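Notebook B, p. 112. Complex prediction, attempt 2.
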Amino acid sequence: MSKIEVFLTKEEEAEVVEAIRVAEQNTSGEIRVHIEKETSIAPIDRAVEVFHLLKMEHTKERNGVLIYVATQSRQFAICGDQGIHERVTYSFWDSTKEIMLNHFKNGKNKEALVDGIHQAGEQLKNYFPHQENDIDELSNEISKA
Ligand code: CA
Ligand code: CA
């Protein structure tokens, strides 16, 4: 079994995808999760790379958010697109990261992601309320490498 399968069971993965779907019912922001084994560079730098690899800048309001996790490196980062960072300060994600870190420390990977997604959605909805005729611009499926 690979590390990624240990990191989240199939059932837990489904819960994470569902958390994204629910969060996106309150905001036009688009949340994605990317999970890989390790990173040799700072997690936030790798998150920015992955953000572009996944073409997450392809949103109308430039409000995509990537939650990046490197399982073996035991690192994670949150990367938002320019539409978000034009409106908020760099401490915007601090509360979300803190919630996630507490769960990760306790080995609760699924809870870290589900609660992180929920919190990110709550934060986003203040700046990017849900629109009628919303389009799911970025897939809710977990991206894995
Ligand atoms: Ca959407
Ligand atoms: Ca989506």
